[in-house]
Amino acid sequence: MRNGLKDETYLSILPKSFNPDSSPLFKKFIDFNRGFHYGFAMKFADPSQIENLPGIRLTDNDTFRFRCHAGISCFNRCCRNLNLFLYPYDVIRLKHRLNISSDQFLEQYADVVLRDGYYFPEVLLKMAENAEKTCPFLTDSGCSVYADRPDTCRSFPLEQGLLYDAEKKKTTILHFFKPPEFCMGQHETREWTPKTWAEDQDAGRYHLMTNQWSEIRALCQDDPFDGQGPDCSKGKMAFMAAYNIDRFREFVFHSSFLKRYKIKSNLLSKLKKSDAELLNLGFEWIKFYLWGIKPKYFTIMK
According to the model, what pLDDT value does residue 126 have? Predict the structure, then answer.
């Protein structure tokens, strides 16, 4: 164990005027068990039980058959009645696509949940209020946000995992072929490897960002909030750095952050222009803020 991190397989700050206790996000905790028939989330498992995990484990060179298209009988069925977990980069892409703020996206399209045995809240896409509980972005012709769809949607029918060896400080990516039984796409003839599928789905940046987030999730296996729960000030700050990029931007550029932390000028220029770069800073800041892990993006002013 290092920094409280066990060997596991896992799938996958604020302006002066901001009061964390006034944030609406932590008034929206819901009961996780809402009767959805399947879902996707970061999962933790014993490495010795990898071969017993659901789905078919694929190596980099293994192939699987899959094709989704409008002519298939189950088209869009996977976009209904599910627990679809959103990762921080997913929220950035979707809120930009919808041209709304982070606050608006989280209020309108997300549920913030805390699962039993977990310490850090998770964000789920809120299903539409209709009989089938469809994805809010589903239309008759398919996904209305397809170019900015979440990482889980891009990966489907694969689930991605990371095997972290704390002793060797090495991370290995794992892939599992796991379509639901109703999925007819698995009976198509088009063949892929995990790599060619990720390339076809333009998933590279998504996977990279999700993998970074999963490392933080793994650290959260041990309580980072000293028994105070994620609704304490420290928990709200960390959640905001991950999931509310607009408020995090205000914190970085309109508080004393830059007086306390030194960031190289060329990186600072990128942070001003790119939410994705700012999210990388957020990940670094969370690890430093909660566990004291030495950051790469900034240094402490002396």
Answer: 96
